[in-house]
Amino acid sequence: MDEERSKSVLQKPTVQKITEIIGAVLEKVVRKDKAYTLSIAESEYATIAQQSEIIAQEEIVNQVIGRISQAKQVLRMTMLLSEELSSPLPVGYHRLIGKLLDSGVDIHRLGFGTAEDFELVQQQLGISSPNFTFSHIEGEDNYQRMILVDDGTLFFNADVIFYKTGHPSLISLFNDYFDRQTDQY
């Protein structure tokens, strides 16, 4: 079982899968009324695949907690509000977020869903810190699960598979995705 688990953690996505992921995220980034210049050359896709890992679903929370506990500067995270209400993350995760805020880490979170769910999650989190921003994005159409730690480690989900990467081009793409969600309206 341990050997099976370690194999699932060390799997690499295929170049085809990376192509699909980049295409899907680009669709969420590009707006008809706004110019977008970042492009990732197809020649980079193999390198991105090589520098990315598939993370087993049962391991993703532990991996994310382990990495964010090392954050020094900034976390950028998205959340599906209805999911947070129906299946909240562990209390230890929320305690860690509080400790990071107290240590000066900036945390920027986007919550996708209804205004009612946003209010409920905001009350549930109960975070009041000058280092914390929590923005509401109406609807779920543009939702992309992601956590970016110190602009160096990206966790994301595509087609119910979790990934981890440090590839700069993919990190830039997800940073643009994040930024463009808050300026879309």
Explain this structure to me?
By secondary structure, the chain is of the alpha/beta class. It has a single domain (2-182), classed as Endonuclease Chain A (Endonuclease, Chain A). Helices cover 45% and strands 22% of the residues. It has helices at residues 2-10, 15-29, 45-50, 60-68, 81-86, 91-102, 115-125, 168-182, and strands at residues 52-55, 74-80, 106-113, 132-138, 146-149, 153-158, 161-165. It has a seven-stranded mixed beta sheet, sandwiched between helices. 24% of the residues are buried.
Keywords:
185 residues, alpha/beta, Endonuclease, Chain A, 7-stranded mixed sheet, 8 helices, disordered N terminus
SSE layout and pairing:
Layout: H1 2-10, H2 15-29, H3 45-50, E1 52-55, H4 60-68, E2 74-80, H5 81-86, H6 91-102, E3 106-113, H7 115-125, E4 132-138, E5 146-149, E6 153-158, E7 161-165, H8 168-182
Parallel strand pairs: 2-3, 3-4
Antiparallel strand pairs: 1-7, 2-5, 5-6, 6-7
Helix pairs in contact: 2-8
Mean pLDDT across the residues is 88
Distance from first to last alpha carbon: 48 Å
Along the chain, the helix and strand elements come as: HHHEHEHHEHEEEEH
Structural class: alpha/beta
CATH superfamily: Endonuclease Chain A
Strand order of the largest sheet: 1-7-6-5-2-3-4
CATH arch. level architecture: 2-Layer Sandwich
Strand content: 15-25%
> Unreliable runs, pLDDT <50, ≥5 residues?
1-9
A few lines on this structure:
The protein is built from 8 helices and 7 strands. It is an alpha/beta fold and 185 residues long. A 7-stranded mixed sheet has the order 1-7-6-5-2-3-4, with helices on both faces.
